What we know:
By secondary structure, the protein is mainly α.
Amino acid sequence: MSDDGYPSADDIEGLAKLETSVFGGPGGKSAKDLAKAVFERNAVSAAMTISNLALHAVNENTKLRAAQYVTDRVMGPLTAANSTPPGEDALMDALNEFNDAVKQSDRGTS
């Protein structure tokens, strides 16, 4: 930094070199593209971690929230509009019961 408080020519040149090495320079990937690539590379590991929490977390609330997250991502959030009538689908009945339990947990009741 120069004496007047502004970046010196050397500072600017150093930042330009850093940008080129990190982002590939002009026409290179943006920070958003790089972040997206990191998330894509780690998506499987993250999904396995969330599934593991749903099955093995010590805290029951953590298990419940992880299970809800997995269910919502795979089947979509449960709503009255996409729900089958009670008794017609055992899996949906179980998921509706689960969804009710989550709502009660959010309200702090049982």
